Amino acid sequence: MSYKDLVNHLKNEGIINDYIANAMLRTPRKDFLPEMYKKYDGFDTALPLGHGQTISQPSVVAHMLTLLDIKNRNKVLEIGVGSGWVAAIMSHLGKEIIGVENVPELYKQAKERLKKYKNVKVVFGDGSCGWQEYAPYDRILISAAVPKLSEEILNQLADDGYVVAPIGPLHTQLITKLNKNGEKIQTLPAPVVFVPLIGKCGYKRDELWI
Fold first, then answer.
1. Does the predicted TM-score (pTM) go above 0.85?
2. What percent of the chain has pLDDT over 90?
3. Rounded Cα gap, residues 171 and 9, in angstroms
4. What is the mean pLDDT of residues 120-145?
5. Regarding beta strands 157-167 and 96-101, do their DSSP bridges make them parallel or antiparallel, or are they unpaired?
6. Would strands 53-55 and 75-79 be described as parallel, antiparallel, or unpaired?
7. Domain range spanning residue 9?
8. Which residues are catalytically annotated?
9. Exposed, middle or buried: residue 98 (CB in 10 Å: 0-12, 13-18, 19+)?
10. Mean model confidence pLDDT for the chain
11. Contact 75, 50 (CB under 8 A)
12. Distance between CA 203 and CA 210 in Å, rounded?
C-alpha cells in the first residue's frame, strides 16, 4: 500500500476528516524517514529513527490529530518532535507550531527538514514539562509516553485548550485527551506503546530498567 492509499484508507474508515487527510497528503512520510526505511512509508507501523526513537504509526497519528482538532488559528506545542513529520502535518492545520526535542541528533535533523515550513519552530531541550517560552498554547500534543500529565503542562494551556497524550506505564498506554483542568474528555480504548518521554516531568532514566 502506498502512503497515499493509506491516508485515503484512514479517511474512508472515518478516522480522519478531509482537512486532516489533505494535510497528511501534503506531508510525505518518506521525507522524514531514514533512507533505508523510505520504501516502507505506506506501512501502517512505527519505524526506527535511530537513537532509540521511532516515527509513529500513521493510524495512531491520525487518531491523535483527530482528537487534537486543530483549528487554523491555533498555536500548537508538540513535545517530542522526533523526525518532524507530525509537526509538518500540523503546520497545514494550525497557525503556529512549536516542536521540542531532547535528542541532539534528532533535533538537528528535524530543524533542517522543517526549515521550509515557515510556521514551525523547533527548539532543543527537556520538553517534558512543556515549553514555557511560547505559552499559552491552544493545543499540546505529547508524542511520547508519559506516566501522568504534569501540572506544568496543563498550566501552559489556553483557557479553552487541551492536550492529547499517550498516558500510562512504560509498556502500554492509552491515548487520552484532557482539558486545562486535567479532566479526561476522551480516551481511545485500544492500547498503544510509545517510546518514553524522558525528563523532569516524564520518566526518569533509571525507571527504564525496571
1. yes
2. 82
3. 28
4. 96
5. unpaired
6. unpaired
7. 3-209
8. 56
9. buried
10. 93
11. no
12. 11
pLDDT band at residue 210, thresholds of 50, 70 and 90?
A: very low
Q: Determine the residue type at 47.
A: L
| Bridging pattern class, strands 75-79 and 137-142 | parallel
The total of structural domains in the chain comes to 1
- Using CA atoms, how far apart are residues 85 and 52, in angstroms rounded to an integer? 17
Bridge partner list, 70 = none
Predicted confidence at residue 207, as pLDDT, reads 62
pLDDT at 205: 72
Distances (CA, A) of 197 to 21, 115, 172, 191, 194: 27, 25, 13, 17, 9
User: Rounded distance, CA 55 to CA 84, Å?
Assistant: 9
- CATH number of the domain within which 103 lies: 3.40.50.150
Give 166-203 pLDDT, tens digit per residue.
999 988 999 999 999 888 898 988 899 998 888 898 87
Sheet holding 174-179, edge to edge: 120-124, 96-101, 75-79, 137-142, 157-167, 174-179, 184-187
Query: Could you give the maximum distance between any two Cα atoms of the chain, in Å?
Result: 44
In a 3-state reduction of DSSP, which class is residue 146?
A: strand
Distances in whole angstroms, Cα of residue 195 to Cα of each of 44, 137, 157: 17, 24, 24
